[in-house]
Amino acid sequence: MPPSPDPPAPTRPLVLLHGIGQSPIAWQEFVSAFGAGRAMHAPWMRGLRPTDAVGFDLDAAAVDVANQLELQGMRQVDLLGVSVGGNVALRLAVERPELARRIVLAGALVRPTKAQLRMQKLALRLVPEGKLVDAGVSRPRMLAVFDALRTLDATSTLARVRAPALVLAGAGDRLGRAAAELLARGLPDARLETIPGGSSMLNDSSPRELAALAHAFLDAPS
Questions:
Q1: pTM for this model (two decimals)
Q2: Helix pair 174-186, 114-125: axis angle to 10 deg
Q3: CATH T-level topology, domain 9-218
């Protein structure tokens, strides 16, 4: 059966998947910089919502996002995920290839090292409690994500991703760049870009630069 034609990019919703220590409101500056003309959806992920029990499962989070999109009539989307949101986007691209048309990944981990998890845990612990509360984020739920990622090894599934991918890393994020290089090498159709001065959470540190690169990639002709 021949592949379905690529629908015009502006007709595809853009789904924004937030990172560890963030909530959907973390995308506000990105959305403003990206501009109008495309429907956007920034869901909470299962295991990170304020009402969820403490605990995180990557597969369950991906299934829940897919279910939310289908309930809203979204049959094909572009995905942009940072941190663990990038890993959920990857899982969707593997398990639901008909849903994920193009993907942008920033800070997604393939096979996290102890150093990578330790640095991310440290960064989370430095976030003031008030900031987490204002965002509706629970520190125990975020720490549970790190526990779930300790055994993650996505190297064997990367070759199954059919969607073209843009892999991004902050130029000053040494561990993040190493993870991005590993990810880009493993994906069949991927381009790697770095953002000067960006951190592991590019939607927070560099929303305008992230929006510009995502816009160019997602709206480019097939």
A1: 0.87
A2: 130
A3: Rossmann fold (3.40.50)
